[in-house]
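REQUEST FORM: STRUCTURE PREDICTION
Request ID: SP-0412
Submitted by: Lab K.M.
Chain count: 1
Length (residues): 152
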Amino acid sequence: MHHRMHAVTTALICALAPGCVSQQFTLPKGFVRVQDYVYEVKGVSAKGHAIGLRIHENTDPPGDLDFWTQAVEHQKVDIDGMKLAAREAIRSDAGLDGTLFQFELGEGPGKTGYWVALWVSGRRILTVEAALPAEIAAEEAEAIRKSMRSVR
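STATUS: Completed
RESULT:
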């Protein structure tokens, strides 16, 4: 009972504290946290952009960043039918090496961008996923990147 009460208290304090988003990820400015059962943390902007953190258990034996980079690209391009617009090596603020993908889906003004930042840390696979218009302003893109790099 004491352990459950401590967990509830910690969750409540975190939910009420500004900038305290699961202690693992910081939402971009202008995003509000929303309840979601797929993501550990999910935020949306007034413009309808969405960003969320997922944590997956790594396999046994664990796959490394190269393995999971290939797996994510295969899933999104070959299975989900998205176009790979860009892929680059990134580093989180906590020093984790990762991969940032920028995928696109659709055509014309309704074309959607789907960004995935991927990190592998021991037994955890962390992804920060963002859905937004394929063409966004540079300052919005940088805010998304900064948020993605905040993973710890």
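NOTES: The longest helix spans residues 2-16.
Reviewed by: T.R.
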